[in-house]
Write a structure and sequence with these properties.
Elements: E1 30-34, E2 46-49, E3 52-59, E4 62-70, E5 76-77, E6 86-87, E7 92-94, E8 103-107, E9 111-118, E10 126-133, E11 148-155, E12 161-168, E13 177-182, E14 193-197, E15 204-206, H1 210-226, E16 227-231, E17 242-247, H2 258-272, H3 274-283, E18 285-286, E19 306-307, H4 326-336, H5 339-364, E20 365-366, E21 371-372, H6 382-385, H7 394-399, H8 403-422, H9 426-446, E22 448-449, E23 454-455, E24 471-472, H10 473-481, H11 487-496, E25 498-499, E26 507-508, E27 521-522, H12 524-536, H13 540-557, E28 564-565, H14 592-606, E29 609-611, E30 615-618, E31 622-623, H15 624-629, E32 636-644, E33 647-654, E34 664-665, E35 667-672, E36 675-677, E37 680-682, E38 690-696, E39 707-708, E40 727-728, E41 736-740, E42 748-754, E43 757-763, E44 766-769, E45 778-785, E46 791-794, E47 798-799, E48 803-806, H16 810-814, E49 818-821, E50 828-829, E51 833-835, E52 839-848, E53 861-869, E54 874-882, E55 895-896, E56 900-904, E57 907-915, E58 941-950
Parallel strand pairs: 6-8, 25-39, 33-38
Antiparallel strand pairs: 1-4, 2-3, 3-9, 4-5, 4-8, 7-10, 9-10, 11-12, 12-13, 13-14, 15-32, 16-17, 18-19, 20-21, 22-23, 24-26, 27-28, 29-30, 30-37, 31-34, 32-33, 35-36, 35-38, 40-41, 41-44, 42-43, 42-45, 45-46, 45-47, 48-58, 49-58, 50-57, 51-57, 52-55, 52-56, 52-58, 53-54, 53-57
Helix pairs in contact: 1-14, 2-3, 2-4, 2-14, 3-4, 4-5, 4-8, 5-8, 8-9, 8-10, 10-11, 10-12, 12-13, 12-14
Signal peptide: 1-21
Pfam families: MGH1-like_GH
Protein name: Esterase
Length: 952
């Protein structure tokens, strides 16, 4: 998860020296905000006299981005508005009271730092930083006096090890207290130990392993900490708290985010607190603001009740379209809510799903490929998992098709079809059923890469569209658990996805020159989905890797962390030679989806309990390695006091003798109160206070195929990294391409794509001519390491077809560019369009959207474009996206929207643009602090004209 509301370029408004009064004192409070405090407001600048303000903060090792900003980011100060600066202790820096990139502080050892700002000159505050001390190490033994102490050794990095100890005062207590300590340096300053207790009314585990029992209690304790009565975010409600009996996202994230909540609920939280999950899901639904007149093209009910896409790339939806992850949490909540609470939520959920699905079909569905467009789910920090050039062309990000997002749309369609059927709306159920069937077929036809044995994570953008040899673990796992991947494909995915020594990274191959976050990282919640997939298909090796990742991470860190570096498994890899690559760049304790993933691992995978719409399934997946290394001498493991839909149960598994061989133990038989029972039980078949006894059968080999990779943690070698994406040099004419290697050296070859199909493989950098060049085509180039086969993203497409420029007309032409056009209800006519040659064309608007930064906001342009022939017949129509665009040293250079593709005959055409909607039209965003928020919806941008590009 990359929370763009706070992270590395969290800039929302233009700042002004008006935040500093003429006297040298601040007219409004300012705060020290950065990666070291979650970009929050818990470190205000305190006035020390004579215009000087200070904040002291205990900072852990790392390369920390920071800014000085007001509570709502309406004012901020940076050193250089055009480039980041790494500050040095003792030096002074003149700050600019306006937006810009974050500055950085590099810290080698946990220590206290004082940030002093002399604001006596309102126009040029002076920043000075100084290290003021280091915290004393504790010498107390947190386990002193405890009856049982269980130590474990873990390898961390460069041959070093860390020791984790678990202890309890009374191992026989009904509800135990645990103390856990670690010698590994923690991500954030704090004690190297934690104490937590099992709680009445919550389940407990007794497994013969104190560590296993304790880590389950830790996850439950962190779930309780994340269960709050109020949430808050600096960009909403004036940064004031909002009443909500909800789940916040983690120690550093105090808000409810659609995807984080939904994945966490699906993985485990909905079983244990379905009412709070429902409340949180409800919070992520919204209708239109009062006074919004829905454009005629917009689908759904008049109130517009739909799922919220959170702030993000290019101004949110539909650049990002993974709001449909909501269905995972909704289905889990519906399965776990008692009937009286389920019925009203079904009605609300179905309405929101219908409105969401119908409008996603208009705004994000590409009929030509049969796939939905939009950013990868959760991998929402463009620099981490996309081509470097994409940040300057977010319309290209918007038009790419991602595996994870398409699988989520498939899941949303199947749930909507099911709920509609149960509600008696058989026509709608059939409609969504057909859409789901067709989407599953398109995913398997368009994104499956037979040579890799996996799905492509994403296609290249418009004018290319090829599935790229880029892979992500969440998308692969979701394809398996939702049934998009059939049995053979599921088997191949599990055998083919690369695993490092500490587990599966979230993307592969890794990207050069990019710090650890999504790149070079393990995310426990993604690992938990990989475990679900492996258990479903009995891949023992992948399941063992996942069990190890989840237990090791929680043990060493005293918490279920947001993410970990993938080779060392550490919460921070300190690279002193390349500080810009240090990471993970931010990392939170008790991250909600990590907590949900751990709880789901224990309840859903080890003990095998999952909740369905009609009851429970009992299918534990206990491997030989888990049995011998974790449960040791135990003959029985027990999950006590699990309550589902008001029915309390205990689950008891009799373990076979430990084996030195690898494999898994299938279920031999199940009994309740001594009476044989099936693996699937209805609620009527399940008595209250039942004990479910499970006997496991003889060891089975299962599938033990897994792909192992390894690398030095500080190296960017070709074994696990991809090449940098190449370019097609400027000045290239027609179909004679000049390939720019972009720094890739020997051992790199290049693949050339024409209109998304491979035209030439393994060519050298330099000139290449297409002997079969058609009259119009679009080319892209991909780099490939010869030894490993790892590939780059594709280059910017180079199109050879004729371009027809379309100007504005009338008063708009006189004002080119037409500034801030696009208020709700406005229409814009373009000049006459004359097409001389028949063919397939791409129609785009030339624009610039400066409403917000490229990684922030809710104000991406979303409009309806109509092209009509001379007789007034519609030749093309649909949604075009005009996302936020970068402002560079030249100002606001125009960029192109997403295209409408259409086949045209020679003749004269007219073009008109009118309103659609974006997330700023929703009531939930009426208190947002930036464009599209408190001052009203924002769907505006500067218009320069339009163009037709001949494609074929």
């Amino acid at each position: 998860m990359f929370k763009t509301t706070h992270l590395l370029a969290a800039v929302l408004f233009s700042a002004s020296a008006a935040s500093i009064a003429d006297s040298g004192t601040l007219a409004a409070p300012m705060y020290l905000r950065g990666g070291f405090n979650g970009w929050g407001i818990d470190h205000p600048l305190a006035y020390k006299g004579k215009g000087v303000y200070e904040a002291e903060i205990l900072v852990s090792p790392g390369y920390h981005g920071f800014k000085v900003g007001s509570k709502d980011w309406s004012a901020e100060w940076v050193i250089d508005p055009t480039a980041s600066v790494t500050v040095a202790a003792g030096a002074s820096y003149k700050m600019q009271p306006r937006p810009g990139p974050e500055d950085y502080l590099f810290v080698k050892k946990t220590s206290t730092w004082r940030f002093s700002i002399d604001a006596s000159d309102p126009a040029a505050p002076l920043l000075r930083v100084a290290q003021t001390g280091t915290p004393p190490a504790s010498t107390a033994d947190p386990h002193q006096g405890h009856a049982v102490i269980s130590p474990s050794e873990y390898r961390i990095i460069d041959g070093a090890t860390a020791t984790v100890r678990f202890s309890t005062p009374d191992v026989h207590a009904t509800l135990r207290s645990y103390t856990q300590s670690t010698t590994m340096p923690l991500r954030d300053p704090g004690p190297q130990s934690a104490t937590y207790r099992e709680a009445a009314g919550q389940p407990t585990v007794r497994s013969g392993s104190l560590a296993f029992d304790a880590l389950f209690a830790l996850a439950l304790d962190e779930m309780k900490q994340n269960a709050v009565a109020q949430i808050k975010d600096g960009n909403y409600n004036g940064a004031s708290a909002i009443d909500c009996d909800c789940f916040e996202t983690g120690e550093k994230w105090h808000y409810v985010w659609t995807r984080d909540l939904s994945y966490a609920a699906d993985l485990g939280l909905a079983m244990l607190d379905p009412e709070r999950v429902r409340n949180s899901l409800d919070f992520k639904l919204s209708g239109y603001r009062p006074g919004i007149t829905r454009a005629p093209q917009v689908a759904g009910s008049a109130d517009g009740m739909q799922i919220i896409q959170d702030t993000g790339s290019g101004g949110s939806w539909p650049v990002s379209t993974d709001r449909v992850a909501w269905v995972l949490g909704a289905e889990a909540a519906l399965n776990n809510l008692p009937p009286a609470q389920r019925a009203p939520f079904v009605e609300r959920a179905l309405k929101a799903l219908v409105n969401t699905l119908e409008n996603d079909r208009l705004a994000a569905f590409d009929a030509a490929s049969g796939l939905y467009m939009g950013e990868q789910s959760f991998l929402d920090w463009r620099d981490q998992s996309y081509a470097a050039w994409i940040v300057g062309d977010l319309a290209s990000l918007a038009s790419s098709k991602a595996l994870s997002t398409n699988v989520l749309h498939y899941k949303a369609l199947t749930l909507a079809a099911s709920l509609a059927h149960d509600s008696g709306d058989h026509a709608r159920s059939a409609r969504y059923g057909r859409w789901a069937t067709a989407l599953k077929r398109s995913i398997n036809e368009r994104l499956w890469l037979e040579d890799a044995g996996m799905y492509s994570s994403l296609s290249a953008p418009h004018f290319d569209g090829a599935p790229m040899h880029k892979f992500d673990w969440l998308g692969q796992a979701l394809a398996i658990v939702t049934g998009v991947a059939d049995g053979e494909r599921a088997r191949r995915i599990l055998a083919s996805y690369p695993h490092g020594p500490m587990g599966a990274p979230v993307i592969y191959p890794q990207q050069q020159g990019t710090p650890v976050y999504h790149n070079r990282a393990i995310w426990p919640f993604v690992t938990a989905y990989g475990l679900k997939a492996a258990s479903l298909r009995a891949n023992v090796s992948v399941a063992d890797a996942a069990y190890g990742t989840l237990m090791r991470g929680a043990a060493l860190n005293l918490s279920n962390m947001e993410n970990l570096e993938w080779i060392s498994g550490q919460p921070l890899l300190l690279d002193e030679q390349q500080p810009a690559l240090i990471g993970p760049v931010i990392n939170s304790k008790r991250q909600l989806w990590s907590v949900g993933g751990y709880l789901g691992m224990v309840i859903g995978n080890v003990f095998g309990i999952s909740v369905t719409s009609s009851g429970i399934d009992v299918r534990p997946f206990i491997t030989a390695k888990l049995r011998r290394e974790t449960f040791g001498a135990a003959s029985v493991i027990t999950l006590n006091n699990l309550t589902l839909r008001g029915k309390r149960m205990n689950v008891r598994i009799a373990l076979p003798a430990a084996s030195k061989e690898d494999g898994y133990y299938p279920v031999k038989n199940i009994a309740i109160g001594g009476v044989p029972a099936a693996a699937s039980l209805t609620w009527q078949q399940l008595p209250d206070n039942a004990t479910i006894d499970i006997a496991l059968g003889p060891l089975q080999e299962g599938d033990q195929q897994i792909r192992r990779v390894d690398a030095a943690p500080y190296a960017e070698g070709p074994d696990v990294f991809g090449p940098r994406e190449p370019g097609i040099a400027k000045g290239t004419e027609a179909a004679t391409l000049r390939i720019d290697a972009n720094g890739n050296g020997a051992g790199t070859v290049y693949n050339i794509y024409r209109d998304g199909k491979l035209a030439a493989a393994s060519v050298a950098a330099g000139a290449w001519s297409d002997r079969a060049a058609p009259a119009a085509a679009c080319y892209a180039v991909e780099a490939q390491f010869s030894a490993s086969g790892n590939r780059s993203h594709h280059s910017v497409p180079h199109c050879t077809g004729t371009v027809i420029e379309i100007p504005l007309i009338g008063a708009a032409l006189a004002q080119t560019p037409l500034k801030d056009w696009g208020k709700p209800g406005e229409r814009l006519r373009f000049g006459a369009v004359r097409v001389a040659q028949a063919g397939e064309y791409g129609l785009q608007v030339r624009y610039h959207n400066r409403a917000n930064q490229i990684n922030l906001g809710i104000s991406g342009g979303v409009k309806w474009l109509v092209l009509k022939d001379a007789a007034g017949r519609i030749a093309a129509q649909g949604v075009v996206q005009l996302p936020h665009a970068r402002i560079d040293k030249t100002g606001t250079p125009p960029v192109m929207s997403t295209p409408l593709r259409t086949r045209l005959k020679p003749g004269r055409y007219s073009l008109e643009m009118s309103d659609f909607y974006n997330m700023s039209y929703l009531q939930s965003n009426s208190t947002f602090s930036a464009a599209g928020g408190a001052e009203g919806p924002s769907n505006k941008f500067d218009v320069y004209g339009a163009r037709l590009l001949r494609l074929k």
